[in-house]
Amino acid sequence: MKRYTGIWLRGMAMGAADVVPGVSGGTMALITGIYAELINTLAGIRPRLLGIWRRQGLAAAWREGNLTFLLILLGGMLTSIVLLARLILWVMAHYPVPLWAFFCGLILASIIIVLRPLKQFGVGTWLALVAGVLFAGWVATRPGLDAFGLSPAIFFISGAIAICAMILPGISGSFILLLLGMYTPVLAAVSNSQWLPLAAFAAGCAGGLLLFVHFLRWALDRFHDLVMALLAGFMAGSLVRLWPWRIAAEPGAVLERTVLPARYAAETGLPPMVWPALLALVSGLLLVWLLSRPGMHNEAKPAAETRTP
């Protein structure tokens, strides 16, 4: 029971991280010591479990798949997501500038955290970093998926893409949703209990996860530094979309305009909140730094408890 409670609490930490752009659920799994077990469990969900079910029964397949661990972890994640969705929407409506500045701080610190452990920083690593910056910068200046409407298909695609980031240490699924223009729609669907789009989003997450986790394990094993450099560049290039001072675009335009604080105050009549924004930015930097301190990483102990496939 103590282990199950710990898994639930770790799931809540991952869920809270995945709601906030910049803090990765994968990073929280690494920090709280369950990343190895999570990746091994997800990678172990294969058709062979059906064969075990037919030959030995459901209980044997359930144990072989380590599904109790996965179910409890997902329960903890969903608890956090439901509890935090309304809060973030309220802050976004009333204090958007400090909130976006806080997100910027999270992203900036996460870039440093992702790049810090790289063993080699050669030409290939630099090229991956620059490619990530250029690609994300281009995506950030394009219309998001929300421009195509908020149909179940769009929620499905968003879930399939975002879940790939949710299990990567260093990049946030919510950050990907922001880049896709689907962060607010997904939070609103959670807050308002819109079950059809949520079901489509969950289905996309499930499908994307089962397809991506095998590729992720292969890529990190063989091209770890290149993958992490690409992710860091991806985060850096997308900061343009998180700029705190944004105003409504001209009629016919899709994206908001990014402006300086003085222009923001002049055009909106709202206070620019420069000092609160700076405080929020620093708070985001400090939060990621605290979470990523070497002493907080306890992967070794739980990894030893991971079920052997």
Please give a structural write-up:
This protein has one domain (2-305). It has 15 helices and two strands. It has helices spanning 2-19, 25-31, 35-43, 48-56, 58-64, 67-94, 96-115, 123-140, 152-166, 173-180, 183-191, 195-237, 261-268, 274-291, 300-305, and strands at 246-247, 257-258. It has a two-stranded antiparallel sheet. Helix 7 packs across helix 12 and helix 8 (123-140) crosses helix 12. The protein is globular, with a radius of gyration of 20 Å.
List the keywords.
309 residues; mainly alpha; two-stranded antiparallel ribbon; 2 strands; 72% helix; globular; disordered C terminus
Compact overview of the structure:
With 309 residues, the protein is mainly α. The chain has helices at residues 2-19, 25-31, 35-43, 48-56, 58-64, 67-94, 96-115, 123-140, 152-166, 173-180, 183-191, 195-237, 261-268, 274-291, 300-305; strands at residues 246-247, 257-258.
